[in-house]
From TrEMBL:
Family: Belongs to the glycosyl hydrolase 2 family.
SUPFAM superfamilies linked to this entry: (Trans)glycosidases (SSF51445), Galactose-binding domain-like (SSF49785)
UniProt keyword annotation of Cell membrane present: no
Signal peptide residue numbers: 1-21
Native organism: Pipistrellus kuhlii
Compartment list: Lysosome
Domain of life: Eukaryota
Domain Glycosyl hydrolases family 2 sugar binding: 38-158
Protein's recorded name: Glucuronidase beta
Keyword line: Lysosome, Signal
GO cellular-component term (any): extracellular space
A biological-process GO annotation: glucuronoside catabolic process
């Protein structure tokens, strides 16, 4: 392999503080009473050098200042292969120098106790790596796969004397904040006083092998796909997502409807007061955890409860009032699939979020019923409540690679045609009171088995492996058109300048 090829990185770096001098072999960093470790995995700033000779980074000395000052950077998960995370074809096959940067805050003891040895260890970096710490060249290593390390005690200890001159503060906590307002009128959803239209998806924390487990490369892939799609929002169906997800949504300006795990409240006894008490506590925990995330613009207390059952009225009245008391600054909703004239919870929500599966769970194959049924659905809800409406779920299963014309259920063509029928009505009603649409679902996901599941739920516009079906291209065209129409491009288009109040979407 060429000397300067830094094509694939699988970096597993960590910092390593210990009181003993290491000589000879290379031990795997293990904690002990005399040794501490600090993992440096997670999101790094990243920039590929696309210049003709791939040497611009050296010529301009990108290592001397924060990488973002050199030009646009991406967030790149470490460890991972940069080629596989994004939607940028140029990175897919990139060969040449790429730059990674990570700021690390070291424990005070490491930097103040000059007997502590601080070692930076890179588990693996393909192929040829050069390492700078605070702008100082500290190591160079050729060949991937194998670890290398360097003693950086002098560098980090010298620097600290300057930094701790600040005073007597004994505890530090950094909390990035963003400022924005959210309000609801009878037919609009306002963010910072401007009408906002949710061009969104419903997600699941789900992927092959990983299941629900949090994974940085998967999260970055999903955010990159949302940007590709032109989406500006998602709902955390049907439970709160990992905090790292929320943090990145703040940074990228992705709007979140934050949903509690209140899914499947379908039996009369589910509405007993003991359940309600628990639900109130869950909302307290959720609000306490997520209230500082500007990305969160609305709480959803439940998904598809049997809200036409007798005790539902008292239950949702209490639950929604409690959530509003916890956080008076955000609207509260729950996602319904009950009938407009039977829903006992709807009087208490700020926004009507309604799910429907016309021409999927009934009227199989009859795409022609959608326009009438959907328009009637919207009109009935609006006439009854005069509240803005979000189509919070709609969709059809499609098995990637199944084709049929005329469109038949489970073919990619059927999924696309069903979406098109929905969009015709959404385009009329969004001029009046419909304030958003969330496709079910972003990606295929695993479920329990049954006669209507084909190795899981196949309503994703992406497969479980995050590859697009035909419907993804349809939705992409639509979302970008809507973005162009409103002059509100997905802010994730410029991730390096986000997270501030100027992002009004
Ligand atoms: C829950 O408690 C309230 C207030 O005491 C009461 O009115 C209501 O009937 C109870 N609900 C159920 C389902 O027991
Ligand atoms: C949106 O606008 C951009 C820039 O003007 C243009 O390149 C793109 O084709 C437009 N997309 C759609 C779907 O209208």
């Amino acid at each position: 392999m060429a000397r300067r090829a830094a094509g694939l990185w699988a970096l597993g770096p960590l910092l390593w503080g210990c009181a003993l001098a290491l000589r000879g072999g290379m031990l795997y960093p293990r904690e002990s009473p005399s040794r501490e470790r600090k993992e440096l995995g997670g999101l790094w700033k990243f920039r590929a050098d696309f210049s003709e000779n791939r040497r611009q980074g050296f010529e301009q000395q990108w290592y001397r200042a924060p990488l973002r000052e050199s030009g646009p950077t991406l967030d790149m998960p470490v460890p991972s292969s940069f080629n596989d995370v994004g939607q940028d074809g140029r990175l897919r096959g990139f060969v040449g120098w790429v730059w990674y940067e990570r700021e690390a805050v070291l424990p005070q003891r490491w930097t103040q106790d000059t007997h502590t040895r601080v070692v930076l260890r890179i588990g693996s970096a393909h192929y040829h790596a050069i390492v700078w710490v605070n702008g100082v060249h500290v190591a160079e290593h050729e060949g991937g796969h194998l670890p290398f390390e360097v003693d950086i005690s002098k560098l980090v200890q010298a620097r600290l004397t300057v930094q701790t001159a600040a005073g007597d503060v004994s505890d530090f906590y950094l909390l990035p904040v963003g400022i924005r307002t959210v309000a609801v009128t009878k037919n609009q959803f306002l963010i910072n006083g401007k009408p906002f239209y949710f061009r969104g998806v419903n997600k699941h924390e789900d992927a092959d092998i990983r299941g629900k487990g949090f994974d940085w490369p998967l999260l970055m892939k999903d955010l990159n796909l949302l940007r590709w799609l032109g989406a500006n929002a998602f709902r955390t169906s049907h439970y709160p997502y990992a905090e790292e997800v929320m943090q990145l949504c703040d940074q990228y300006g992705v709007v979140v409807i934050d949903e509690s795990p209140g899914v499947g409240i379908v039996l009369s006894q589910s509405y007993n007061n003991q359940s309600l008490q628990h639900h109130l506590e869950v909302m307290e925990e959720l609000v306490r955890r997520d209230k500082n995330h500007p990305a969160v613009v609305m709480w959803s207390v439940a998904n598809e409860p049997a809200s036409s059952l007798g005790p539902a009225g008292y239950y949702f009245k209490t639950l929604i009032a409690h959530t509003k008391a916890l956080d008076p600054s955000r609207p509260v909703t729950f996602v319904t699939n009950s009938k407009y004239d039977a829903d006992l919870g709807a009087p208490y929500v700020d926004v009507i979020c309604v799910n429907s599966y016309f021409s999927w769970y009934h009227d199989f194959g009859h795409l022609e019923v959608i326009q009438l049924q959907l328009a009637t659905q919207f009109e009935n809800w609006y006439k009854t409540y005069q509240k803005p409406i979000i189509q919070s779920e709609y969709g059809a299963d499609a098995i990637s690679g199944f084709h049929h014309d005329p469109p038949l259920m489970f073919s990619e063509e059927y999924q696309k045609s069903l979406l098109e029928q929905y969009h015709l009505v959404l385009d009329q009603k969004r001029k009046e009171y419909v304030v958003g649409e969330l496709i079910w679902n972003f990606a295929d996901f695993m479920t329990d088995q049954s006669t209507f599941r084909v190795l899981g739920n196949k309503k994703g516009i992406f497969t479980r492996q995050r590859q697009p079906k035909g419907a993804a291209f349809l939705l992409r065209e639509r979302y970008w058109k809507l973005a162009n129409e409103t002059g509100c491009h997905p802010p994730a288009e410029k991730p390096q300048c986000l997270g501030k109040s100027h992002c009004t979407w």
